[in-house]
Specification:
Strand content: 5-15%
Number of strands: 11
Number of helices: 23
Distance between the termini: 26 Å
Largest sheet: 5 strands, antiparallel
């Protein structure tokens, strides 16, 4: 009888003559790629726009650069603070620093205000009302990368220390005396880059440790605990330089945040796929004496499910490429490519490693056939102890689910729907700085500005109007708007006198959701004002941080409306093609979608009431959706595959389900704990965005592992009976 193609694959990958070749090839690729390509972490991080240039905040920024060049470039805000009040000596030293910047400009320095040319009394007019704070900007070219900008900040620190005789940047804000902090877009960008650079190493170490500990606790085998880490580690050593080459050649934009999360994903999901094959191998070794024959059979029985599981994750993550929001889009290739290579390592490198180690991989609990176990006991002069039945706990769960499916559906459904309802209360924020630790320099600088100046001064709204040659000044009309605090004197463009700039301070924190609502209202109000001024079709643009946040909200919402349904449809088609069962494919998609909303609700309860976060980062829903839907279907595919195999072997409907739960329950539970644990590693980082993402995704994985996959899905299949297999006639019979 001819061997199954996957069995032949297993014989080649883990065969006596080929296993060493496969391992050598993987190691060779890892070494060669590392020598000729840069590691992805060493490539410069992308620092461009997140929003397409069709949105008003980007268009306003472009006009500002063309018509108001003195305000153009990326601003670094240096915040100066002395609780007792900034002295004349402090201001003189600040002027001295700006004279140095004027005489010896930094790399990429575009413009600076001429503070050094003003009388000290004029500079005092820029102090906060309490006289304790001053904000001075330095504008840098948008083309300079974060390495250059970071070096510039170090030079400014040196010049400041030389000018003042002390370093006001390295101080505790609670202490007396002068303090300085770098904030604004440049300061925030540098802090974000430093945070994620530090996160990479921390994540790698923490992820490896938590996987190692969980595997040791569950399987009590030191060799087995190391095998998945070695396989996934080698895969990562191949993935990293290949992504680095793509980024260096402009094929992708490197995103430090994406790389940090990719590390967690590869080690978590990769370890799961390894366990699917390892567990099947161990089970077959209990009845098959030849380790190579057992390995080939294990590859045959598990590879189909591993490939389909990996494929759903790759396709699901690749849908992020459809996004308009830059950060979403930059996640697509690293995630999908990383999982693709890791999945390939699991079905090639892992069989080779298992072929080399054989039964020794499971030491000290070596799986043997009954005859071999008796011979081993006799050799050691010990009585033979019959092996306990495999998977007895999960078998009991399977029998309970198939005997009381409606009870399971009602209870599990109530829990999931109740948690999902909590997601309707979530509040979202759209500013990056709220994700930073409170002692980060840029956040401390932000706090100084927030506490010492009126709210709107933090980030003025830039209203640009094309006056079309009319004698127009709408300052008074703008001041009458209920949300406007201050309108600075109108300015006209440097090259186009028709372009007018109105800088507006809102009467509230410009980073708040309420301020975003005000800018949305401003669009209608300005239309009305221009219509009253006989400019019915007058063009205008709204820029500034608040407008950018509003555009971010619109773009992210649009991405969710596209990516979520597309991902559901594509994964549904993959499931349908693999299972050839319409009703079950629908069930799986419905249950994982419910699981996502339940995870979002449960995550919000933990984040808001447990950790005290006032809001959730706006990007969390889409990130979590992509991961939970893709990874949730992983476990379902593995379990359903076993149920289908039992059915093909002639088992009755309920028996096939019960056996499927029994044979896959333990490994999926282990895999779920590992994957949830790796995502929870993100919660140890000092970045609120990653903390929230890690919690929501981990909760989603745990719900899939302990509620959806072992209880809800098999209960639904039980209730639908043989229709669960339709239109597959062979299974339905």
């Amino acid at each position: 009888m001819a061997k199954h193609p996957l069995e032949k694959w297993g014989s080649v990958m883990g065969g006596k003559k080929t296993r060493w070749i496969v391992v050598a090839l993987w190691i060779m690729f890892a070494v060669v790629f590392a020598l000729i390509f840069p590691q992805v972490n060493s490539v410069e991080n992308y620092s461009g726009d997140e929003i397409p240039d069709t949105y008003t905040s980007i268009q306003a920024g472009n006009i500002m650069e063309e018509e108001f060049s003195s305000d153009s470039g990326i601003p670094l805000l240096i915040t100066w603070y002395n609780e007792s009040g900034l002295t004349e000596e402090d201001l003189t030293n600040i002027q001295g620093l700006y004279k140095q910047l004027a005489d010896e400009p930094l790399d990429g320095q575009e413009t600076i205000p001429p503070f050094h040319e003003l009388p000290v009394t004029a500079l005092m007019g820029s102090l906060s009302e309490n006289g304790a704070a001053l904000v001075t900007p330095v504008f840098f070219s948008t083309e300079k990368n974060s390495d250059v900008l970071k070096e510039n900040l170090a030079i400014i620190q040196e010049r400041t220390e030389s000018q003042f005789g002390e370093n006001p940047y390295d101080t505790n804000l609670e202490d007396e005396g002068l303090h300085a902090r770098f904030s604004g877009p440049v300061g925030i960008s540098i802090d974000a880059t430093d945070l994620f650079k530090a996160a990479d190493v921390q994540l790698m170490i923490a992820t490896v440790i938590i996987i190692l500990v969980i595997l040791l606790v569950i399987y009590r085998s030191p060799i087995l605990a190391i095998i998945p880490l070695v396989v996934v580690g080698i895969a990562y050593l191949v993935v990293s330089p290949l992504l680095g080459a793509m980024a260096e050649n402009g094929l992708i934009d490197k995103d430090a945040q994406a790389v940090a999360i990719m590390i967690v994903l590869l080690f978590g999901a990769g370890t799961d796929y390894c366990l699917f094959l390892i567990t099947r191998y161990r089970d077959i070794l209990l009845t098959e004496d030849n380790k190579f024959t057992a390995l080939a059979s294990a590859v045959r029985e598990s590879t189909g499910a591993i490939v389909m599981s990996g494929l759903t994750v790759v396709i699901g993550l690749a849908t992020l490429a459809l996004a308009d929001y830059g950060a979403f889009q930059r996640f697509a290739v690293p995630f999908s490519f990383g999982v693709l290579i890791t999945g390939f390592a699991v079905v090639t490198l892992l069989p080779a490693v298992l072929g080399i180690l054989g039964r020794a991989a499971f030491w000290p609990f070596v799986p043997r056939t009954e005859e071999a176990e008796k011979a081993n006991a006799e050799k050691k002069n010990k009585p033979y102890k019959p092996r306990k039945p495999n998977h007895r706990y999960m078998r009991a769960i399977g029998e309970f689910v198939t005997s009381k499916p409606w009870l399971v559906i009602i209870v599990a459904g109530a829990v999931l729907i109740g948690l999902a309802f909590a997601s309707t209360n979530i509040k979202y924020n759209y500013d990056l700085i709220s994700s930073f630790p409170e002692d980060m320099p840029s956040r401390e600088g932000f706090k100084i500005i927030e506490e010492n100046f009126t709210p709107g001064e933090l980030a003025p709204v830039q209203l640009l109007i094309d006056s079309e040659g009319t004698d127009l000044d709408i300052t008074e009309q703008l001041l009458r708007l209920p949300y406007v605090g201050v309108v600075k004197e109108m300015r006209t463009g440097e090259t186009n006198n028709n372009i007018q700039l109105y800088e507006i301070d809102l009467d509230k924190n410009p980073y708040s959701n309420e301020a975003m609502d005000d800018v949305e209202q401003m669009k209608d109000d300005v239309k009305g004002i221009l219509a009253d001024s006989n400019l019915k079709d007058g063009q205008f643009w709204i820029g500034g941080e608040t407008s950018s946040q509003l555009d971010t909200k619109v773009v992210q919402s649009g991405d969710e409306n596209i990516i979520q349904p597309v991902m559901i449809i594509i994964i549904f088609i993959v499931l349908l093609a693999y299972l050839r069962a319409l009703i079950t494919s629908i069930q799986l998609m419905v249950t994982v979608v419910i699981s996502f909303f339940s995870a979002l609700g449960a995550g919000w309860l933990i984040i808001h009431y447990g950790l005290g976060h006032e809001a959730m980062a706006s990007s969390i829903p889409l990130y979590s959706f992509v991961f939970i839907i893709a990874l949730g279907n992983d476990y379902n595919i593995f379990m359903i595959s076993d149920i289908w195999k039992n059915r093909k072997r002639g088992a009755a409907h309920k028996q096939a389900i019960s056996n499927g739960i029994a044979s896959t329950g333990a490994v999926i539970t282990s895999a779920g704990l590992i994957l949830a644990g790796t995502f929870l590693v993100l919660a140890s980082l000092p970045i609120q965005l990653l903390v929230q993402f890690g919690i929501v995704t981990a909760v989603g994985v745990l719900l899939d592992t302990f509620v959806v996959r072992p209880l809800l899905v098999p209960a639904l299949i039980t209730v639908f009976g043989k229709w669960s297999y339709w239109p597959n006639k062979k299974l339905k019979e």
